[in-house]
């Protein structure tokens, strides 16, 4: 199974190569970068030395001839690649936002016209596992919506209000230096970087709708002085009181067959480098507020790991192939 | 003005000495520690070398003869000191929880009997400035309630639900090594350390009540990989929609005469080492949720700095005496 | 191949389980802990949940019946286990200091009597690969000596003075809370924790002697605000000037067949979680000082990974089995 | 005493304003920035809000009419300002490298022509206190040379080789985003950023020469995941053995009258935000190697604080005026 990574020089590109190094069937044969064509991948990702001899290339999309392609490019760029790939039968996982939302929602939220829209599954396997194998193109979810949705999903129908208070590591801001990811602005510091308006809330609302929830959904992200990980604290308000036992049962039932969701106290280091989402929850005295907390690695379950999980489902591989990476703690 | 610090070996003791070094009228003449009596203060607080030649002592409380005393001891210990001090006319600021709540609330929340209760002002000057000068004993607020209450106070009467999602630095866990404050459990990591039940919520509810609010108040604290600071994100839900202009006006009016509250984008490094509380706020589209964020240094405005602010009010000093410390950024 | 980990509750025990999860022949069947016997390993190592169902046990050493044992206990404890294991034919890798040095050196450096001494290979495969397969007991090197020796080895015969200035992450201080590993003493901070006298210098001198060096060897370790990793800066002083080309050739030749030594710019994140040692070197103008820098993960190449590398050599497995873990960057 | 800061938008500019806020005689009346002219200083330095109402201006240098000017601009820029200022009698402290070295050394080390050279005192008061009051222009030392020289100075005449192994916080890399100061390259990481060749070694050699040392001087800097501070480990090799008592006496004598040098275990947090240099030292067994360690805040004793110390000496103020800032620990 030959694999291409379109846009391989960023963090998610590096993570795809890292994880696919242990995949039993797939092999990365093409890593593209406009700026770095001709250079060794291990030059910009020195941690990968010993695992890849690839050089970056910059082919026309029509010349990419593989079984599977990952689009690790920014939103609005992905829509320029997807069409050519899928019409030639290449299974494609898009890590950008371009296919996650209905066309009109996408255009409103991102403020751009979508020039090559397709309706495709939202690649959160824990919610959409049945839809994914049928499609040649899958939209890999956003990092925040992944952790947030998995935290609250079992209570979707009971909630009237859900407030996601998320805290992300700096790698979410990408590999280009900026005031946002500069050490002296982040180290030994903490800030809210959006207060009431972040584009990812649209995905969160979509998924709550998919689960039959009528809850109003709100989202505030913060920036942590850590490299990786998102911890989301979901404050879930209910009309009718609930007991801890009922909540325990809802979560245990919902995630009973999910290898990558572990019901235990979440911490970023407990999932670091892995595809796990750890979730815990507690009912407040009175029963009308539940706090559910999830932890993921934003680059793995929040991006490249989940993309491989989708690839595995699309291609009939074992779902955890390439993803049996133990978290790195401490 | 001679000052004693009862329990000077911890972080708040060190901070009192640091800040009082620049006070124009007060001088620390007594720093107590049961374990360290006879040792130089600068031995355990080496950063203070050059600013204090004091040695720790371990006097009977009845032998402490000063103008002002700070109780920097744990809750349940403070109640053993306060009586003797105040009956001898020593102005006392208690940094513990012992006098912050009504007696019955205290006993319920802390699960102990209060053996020497007094009703005293709650020393949050921005809300209780008029009460503080009249008292010989003031209860210094908890670190979380300080930042949380200042974030939401101007909207107290409009809110029906307030969720405080707080993130604190590790110094809040004290100077004794534990699994909570061990580097390998905290560094490059992030966790929620209480989900629905933390004792400080009682103070938060009390202050909202004092402000005439009927909001239900909730609180979830998290532990950050930083040394100092608390950032609180107050998710404030309203029955009636509000505009950004109205909220701007409410906050500007509420804090118009408060030197230590600055209405600007909060970050922990922006207030580090200082007595400031920086606050910002934004109305979500639709007008029924306001996110207000505050940042304080937990050891200063959240403890020792506010204690000195209270001392200044109690003793007729300028309110900012000893507190004109510029934040340390980065 | 059944494996026991004696002393499995610490960091090196956790790392052994993490890495052996991907070993093609070995399986951990016994994880001992005196304090935690009866509890699930995944309770204290929650990141391992999904990879092990083991419970800690506390057997008599004579009842441990496996093919391979790792001693992940403190020095002076290991000597109580090794004899019983090896006399029953169990291949044993000792991660403590008990068998790294000649008996008299050990007793002098560690200030204790050695009650069960054996002369065994020093398990640094890059220097002692030929000796390791012949032994039933191997002494796994110290974390500092591993990185230091690999940095300077190719220049051993040319050096007259070697100063190792090492900087280690906090996990080197173990899993028990102490003032050394407390966040507020380490975070956003940096210190030298020994200036001229650390026990590991004895191993460093031994290995330089093994390489035929007559250099005087010195060592100063520092404590970094990071979880993992040791970066060692070797300041190598020469009597006769050398050129960059000569040094390049020496290192390339010395490490030509070593998978786990990569000659590229070292950083802690470039080797994080992996068994690699990255090394770079530069000749100062004038040619009489070379600076060679190495980076390892102290818990992997500096402990558990190298121990598995030794096991593989002792048992005839592929040397990298269980160790094909890609570094985690960032 | 009216003060101008030329180039006030960087870290050293911000620190000058922070510290001068507590100066008893000086007042900052002019803060220049080409890019930010017209904007409030507190906009880019929000921590300073409440302490300054200044706006950035962009005057011609000839229009700057003050008593004292600080040049907080890059090297090669400073030489364009200094002449105009000093010929109009404005006492000037240059924080750049432009006047620290002899002209020919400067031109060789920095690879540029010096277009307005003056021979001026090297503003390290602990070594050059007598020269500073006589001059209208003082060259403020580099951050690394300050900490390194203060660590080794008392042993200058005894050393034959000095190796400075320095570790700096990220603020040394300035306020502009770059791959060097990006969080994901620095956080939970550590690297050597120059191995054998850094321009600051020229100042270090100059000062050892000034002290009558014939030692060969070497320097390797590293980048720490901390905001502020430089810890320098000086490995000092001697021809003749020395005892700990002799070294104690040398240091105590050398620094007996220096308020800003404290002989105690150095840590970055122990001097954070302050003008102190903490120094400790230990003789290795055998007496021919001494390890001396110093800690400074690179932005204070390594830049703005020392610049104010120089201003105080030049203007006849108390040397510590504006510098009685207690370190911020933790």
From TrEMBL, chains A, B, C, D:
<comment type="pathway">
    <text>Amino-acid biosynthesis; L-arginine biosynthesis; N(2)-acetyl-L-ornithine from L-glutamate: step 3/4.</text>
</comment>
<feature type="domain" description="Semialdehyde dehydrogenase NAD-binding">
    <location>
        <begin position="2"/>
        <end position="135"/>
    </location>
</feature>
<keyword id="KW-0521">NADP</keyword>
<keyword id="KW-0963">Cytoplasm</keyword>
<dbReference type="GO" id="GO:0003942">
    <property type="term" value="F:N-acetyl-gamma-glutamyl-phosphate reductase activity"/>
</dbReference>
<dbReference type="InterPro" id="IPR050085">
    <property type="entry name" value="AGPR"/>
</dbReference>
<dbReference type="InterPro" id="IPR000534">
    <property type="entry name" value="Semialdehyde_DH_NAD-bd"/>
</dbReference>
<keyword id="KW-0055">Arginine biosynthesis</keyword>
<dbReference type="Pfam" id="PF01118">
    <property type="entry name" value="Semialdhyde_dh"/>
</dbReference>
<dbReference type="InterPro" id="IPR000706">
    <property type="entry name" value="AGPR_type-1"/>
</dbReference>
<dbReference type="Pfam" id="PF22698">
    <property type="entry name" value="Semialdhyde_dhC_1"/>
</dbReference>
<dbReference type="InterPro" id="IPR023013">
    <property type="entry name" value="AGPR_AS"/>
</dbReference>
<dbReference type="InterPro" id="IPR036291">
    <property type="entry name" value="NAD(P)-bd_dom_sf"/>
</dbReference>
<protein>
    <recommendedName>
        <fullName>N-acetyl-gamma-glutamyl-phosphate reductase</fullName>
        <ecNumber>1.2.1.38</ecNumber>
    </recommendedName>
</protein>
<keyword id="KW-0560">Oxidoreductase</keyword>
<dbReference type="GO" id="GO:0006526">
    <property type="term" value="P:L-arginine biosynthetic process"/>
</dbReference>
<dbReference type="GO" id="GO:0070401">
    <property type="term" value="F:NADP+ binding"/>
</dbReference>
<keyword id="KW-0028">Amino-acid biosynthesis</keyword>
<comment type="function">
    <text>Catalyzes the NADPH-dependent reduction of N-acetyl-5-glutamyl phosphate to yield N-acetyl-L-glutamate 5-semialdehyde.</text>
</comment>
<feature type="active site">
    <location>
        <position position="143"/>
    </location>
</feature>
<dbReference type="InterPro" id="IPR058924">
    <property type="entry name" value="AGPR_dimerisation_dom"/>
</dbReference>
<comment type="similarity">
    <text>Belongs to the NAGSA dehydrogenase family. Type 1 subfamily.</text>
</comment>
<dbReference type="GO" id="GO:0005737">
    <property type="term" value="C:cytoplasm"/>
</dbReference>
<dbReference type="GO" id="GO:0051287">
    <property type="term" value="F:NAD binding"/>
</dbReference>
